[in-house]
Specification:
By secondary structure, this protein is of the alpha+beta class. It has helices at about 15-20, 105-115, 115-140, 145-155, 175-180, 185-195, 215-220; strands spanning about 25-30, 35, 45-50, 55-60, 65-70, 75, 90-95, 100-105, 200, 210. It has seven helices and ten strands. The protein starts with 13 loop residues before the first helix and ends with a helix.
Length: about 220
């Protein structure tokens, strides 16, 4: 008897789904440094990054800013409204020209209940991001500045995501990296030069991050 070959499971593509379904959403275009929403604004929409990059940050009472996340194509943000969040807990800013889909809370809830493949994808995404937040905390508590910077660069290059190119954002500044890592700009500059000499990164034509940078994290 001939063996019947099993068909390979096709990975769910959120972007294709969001454009092919009858889901109500609005595509918004933002120029670099434009505010998508500000801390304290009403929390009414779930946002999806179609193109470009977005910074999510929080400012405390004395005006000190902390960068919480750097988001790229395929990432969701603003999902707090689904859990009853009334106001935005941080500010979302485009750090490149970005296209963002805005999905109203009620519409997002309706589609999550109706479309199981999409809801599975969304839950998996949220769980993955929670794991990353935990790893970020451990990173801050136990790792050296050099390892924290290496991990941040790999995250910006979307290391481990097969459908993404291994390169970071050409427009990200060393000041921003210092904020993300929790150190000073001179320290970031020192290690960036070290990584460049070791061939882990290249700066010709924008910041390029090689997978070999992972060795910094694995080195004791």
């Amino acid at each position: 008897m001939k063996k019947v070959k099993k068909a390979k499971a096709v990975a769910f593509n959120a972007q294709t789904f969001l454009y092919s379904t009858g889901m109500a959403r609005k595509a918004m275009e933002y120029q670099r440094k434009a505010t998508i929403f500000a801390q304290g604004d009403p929390s009414t929409h779930v946002m999806y990054v179609q193109k470009g990059a977005v910074k999510f940050s929080v400012v405390n009472e004395v005006g000190k800013e902390a960068i919480i996340a750097m988001l790229g194509a395929g990432d969701f943000f603003g999902e707090g409204c689904l859990a009853g969040q009334k106001v935005c807990q941080g500010t979302a800013t485009a750090i490149t020209h970005a296209t963002v889909l805005a999905i109203e809370k009620g519409e997002m809830q309706r589609v999550l209940h109706r479309e199981h493949a999409f809801s599975d994808h969304f839950i998996k995404y949220m769980l993955s991001r929670n794991i990353q937040v935990e790893e970020d905390l451990i990173d801050q508590l136990f790792n050296s500045t050099e390892k924290r910077l290496a991990r941040t660069l790999l995250q910006l290059a979307r290391y481990g995501k097969k459908d993404e190119p291994h390169k970071a954002l050409a427009t990200i500044s060393q000041e921003t990296l210092a904020e993300m890592v929790g150190t000073t700009r001179p320290r970031v500059n020192f290690f960036m030069n070290k990584f460049k000499k070791q061939g882990f990164i290249h700066t010709d034509g924008g910041l390029q991050v090689n997978n070999s940078l992972l060795t910094v994290l694995l080195h004791d």
